[in-house]
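// run 5 | inverse folding | seed 20
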């Protein structure tokens, strides 16, 4: 990453070097500054709390919503509504991150998310039919706005605090994302079976609200100056477009499982809600445990990122084709095989997801974007928006396909998104390598002729 000019430097609370950049530990050092540790702790709290609140819906909400008069397609829309509003607001939050302030955006987003999680637990008191469905959409939209604010700010803060090893840090913090995804379904299923619909949401919403003052204390404050860079300048870069499509495709695949997998598992294998939550462990554990290693590889060997993106996409496509499995294979689905494919899916998603943010950031810097919190906000907002767009299309299209074709064919079709993204980014990297090779070949004869002319001149 290039150096930044004095007029666009951020003023941080961490020590500042003579060139105006924040003092960060060198890549070979394992020591972190106080602000770096606090930034990691705050983001870990966000990842864990937001994912545990998000994932508790899976084991029991689709069935509960059906009792209230919602079809499979409407349930998919309720799940997808969260992502749609997340998509619409992430771009705005990323664009105005500097003006709003990263710390305020982070804390306010967590507060809103905790409040509306509690409200979601009260929706079973609403009348059946359109009233219940309408309130579900409203509360999920409010939750999405809070989540978008917190996540957009957290990406920017981490990238600012760890400019040299962002993939390693983000990969390590995905442990807490996976932990939330792991604990959410079984805890939600257990609390639902034991105490009813309201208790899971009230308990977890209160936990999020308790974490708000803790994060107000832990999170360092980063001030910045706005730059001339914009979303339009970023999204017009061809590589960024393909990376955005990769983000969208992976998110669509993952989001497809939210409204469909619990219904398939409970009907196919006759499992109660508590055990359905345990099935989700295969996906969440493999993703969270593999992410730190994949992040470390991405930082230490950046040339591997392209291969992780390509083969991760292709492996994800294969996993979804085998998840049902697709009827064309004529393989009978077994519970052990289903869990094994979920483990493979979690690993393949990690292969593709972890290198995406540093690749987008590197592409922005290579194309002249100024280093700082402003461009980090743009990249974070775009990343969150594309992820949310996929998380909207995945459950919405998935609910419809599941209703019309069944889970087996719906999963195979969803895997097509990952197949397209893996092939597209692979073709792009091949063409990019070919252009660089031609450019190198053109420069080599020129330098040879210049050296020969210099030698002839020296001999005379």
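// decoded
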């Amino acid at each position: 990453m290039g150096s930044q000019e004095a007029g666009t430097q951020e003023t941080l609370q961490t020590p500042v070097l003579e060139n105006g950049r924040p003092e960060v530990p060198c890549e070979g050092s394992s020591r972190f500054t106080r602000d770096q540790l606090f930034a990691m702790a705050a983001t870990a709290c966000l990842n864990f709390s937001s994912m545990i609140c998000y994932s508790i819906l899976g084991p029991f909400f689709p069935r509960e919503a059906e009792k209230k008069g919602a079809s499979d397609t409407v349930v998919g829309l309720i799940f997808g509504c969260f992502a749609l509003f997340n998509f619409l607001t992430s771009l705005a939050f990323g664009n105005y991150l500097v003006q709003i302030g990263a710390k305020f955006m982070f804390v306010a987003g967590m507060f809103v998310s905790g409040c509306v999680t509690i409200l979601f637990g009260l929706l079973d008191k609403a009348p059946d039919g359109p009233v219940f469905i309408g309130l579900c959409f409203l509360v999920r939209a409010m939750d999405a706005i809070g989540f978008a604010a917190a996540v957009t700010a957290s990406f920017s803060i981490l990238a600012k605090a760890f400019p040299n090893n962002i993939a390693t840090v983000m990969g390590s913090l995905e442990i807490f994302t996976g932990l939330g995804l792991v604990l959410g379904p079984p805890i939600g299923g257990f609390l639902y079976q034991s105490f009813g619909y309201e208790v899971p949401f009230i308990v977890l919403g209160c936990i999020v609200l308790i974490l708000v003052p803790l994060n107000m204390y832990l999170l360092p404050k980063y001030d910045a100056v706005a730059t001339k860079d914009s979303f339009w300048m970023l999204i017009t870069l061809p590589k960024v477009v393909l990376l955005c499509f990769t983000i969208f495709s992976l998110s669509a695949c993952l989001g497809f499982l939210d409204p469909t997998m619990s219904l398939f598992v409970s009907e196919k294998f006759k499992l109660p809600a508590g055990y359905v939550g345990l099935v989700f462990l295969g996906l969440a554990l493999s993703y969270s445990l593999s992410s730190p290693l994949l992040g470390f590889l991405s930082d230490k060997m950046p040339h591997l990122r392209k291969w992780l993106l390509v083969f991760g996409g292709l492996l994800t496509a294969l996993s979804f084709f085998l998840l049902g499995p697709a009827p064309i294979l004529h393989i009978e689905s077994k519970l052990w095989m289903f869990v094994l494919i979920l483990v493979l899916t979690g690993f393949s998603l990690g292969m593709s997801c972890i290198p995406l943010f540093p690749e987008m950031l590197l592409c922005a810097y290579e194309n002249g974007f100024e280093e700082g919190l402003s461009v980090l906000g743009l990249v974070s907002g775009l990343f969150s928006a594309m992820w949310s767009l996929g998380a909207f299309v995945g459950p919405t299209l998935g609910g419809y396909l599941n209703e019309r074709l069944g889970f087996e064919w719906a999963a195979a079709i969803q895997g097509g998104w990952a197949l397209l993204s893996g092939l597209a980014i692979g073709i792009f990297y091949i063409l990019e390598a070919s252009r660089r090779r031609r450019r190198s070949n053109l420069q080599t004869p020129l330098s040879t002729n210049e050296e020969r002319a210099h030698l002839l001149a020296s001999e005379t």
